[in-house]
Write a structure and sequence with these properties.
- The protein is α+β, with helices and mostly antiparallel strands and about 260 residues long.
- It contains 5 helices and 11 strands, in the order ββααββββαβααββββ.
- The protein has an 11-stranded antiparallel sheet with strand order 1-2-4-5-6-3-8-11-10-9-7.
- The longest helix has 18 residues, at about 30-45.
- The chain is globular and about 45 Å long.
- About 35% of the residues are buried.
């Protein structure tokens, strides 16, 4: 796919939405949306010289740290949608990237993500001055409120009321170009953990995701979920030491189709 520059350092990509993309509730799955957001981020980074392949030539790679999504309305399955992305901050080790998803003229959702660049050998964050300049930073459009990633999505309350979910052994199909579990796969595992009737009956309104630690092929994982606010939180941990790898909190509402 070829991105379109709609303003300096702002790109937009259009995606088709067909029936076979939909889940059992007739909705576009959250994991697929996360995948499209990450894909568009990659197109932007490639266009302006700091894509993952360029970084890997220097022994570095990008890692998604946090992602927050706020839905204004659900995606309809009868039309394509467009994702716009841009960088709004470059800090010492963290950069902030925002997204807007439109279907026609309607704003479907907004998203904010935090990224860090990592040394592929040490797996430690590196100073962003090595690979990125503030030249790419732009301001978010006026009148559009971007979500702020939550500081915590799994706390004492969730820990005390957690329910055992699924066991999962990382397979080849789970892996990304960094040879670790793909970001969208974490979301799929989390959604598979929740009670299926809840997922079918209700739709996602707000999402906060923390990517905490990588997992490689063969890793044994276990999921837990807990009621949280107006929805659920899910934690995915190592089956051996229960070290957390991934957490997500979802605010749900009754489906507009009910």
């Amino acid at each position: 796919m070829i991105s379109t520059e709609i303003a300096p350092y702002v790109i937009q990509e259009e995606f088709q939405l067909w029936t076979f993309h939909l889940d059992a509730a007739g909705r576009f799955p959250l994991s697929k949306l996360v995948s499209r957001l990450i894909h568009t981020a990659g197109l932007h980074a490639n266009r302006y010289g700091f894509g993952v392949m360029k970084l890997q030539e220097q022994g570095y790679t990008w890692a998604l740290h946090r992602l927050s999504i706020h839905f204004e309305q659900p995606l309809n399955h009868d039309a394509s949608f467009k994702i716009t992305t841009f960088v709004t901050d470059v800090g010492a080790v963290k950069t902030t990237r925002n997204f807007m998803v439109h279907q026609g003229e309607k704003l479907i959702c907004t998203a904010t993500s935090y990224w860090v660049a990592m040394d592929m050998q040490s797996r430690r964050a590196i100073p962003l001055t090595h690979i990125l300049t503030k030249e790419v930073v732009v301001s978010a459009p006026e009148g559009v409120e971007m979500p702020v990633p939550a500081r915590s999505v799994w706390g004492r309350e969730e820990e005390e009321s957690k329910i055992a979910g699924l066991d999962h052994k990382v397979r080849y199909s789970d892996l990304d170009i960094n040879n670790h579990v793909n970001s969208a796969i974490w979301v799929t595992m989390a959604m598979n953990t929740l009670p299926v009737n809840e997922v079918l009956r209700r739709e996602v309104q707000e999402v906060d995701i923390h990517f905490i630690a990588e997992a490689a092929h063969g890793a044994e994982l276990i999921t837990h979920y807990a009621p949280s606010g107006q929805g659920y939180a899910v934690m995915i941990s190592s089956a051996e030491g229960e070290a957390p790898h991934f957490c997500i909190k979802l605010k749900l509402k009754e489906s507009h189709e009910q």
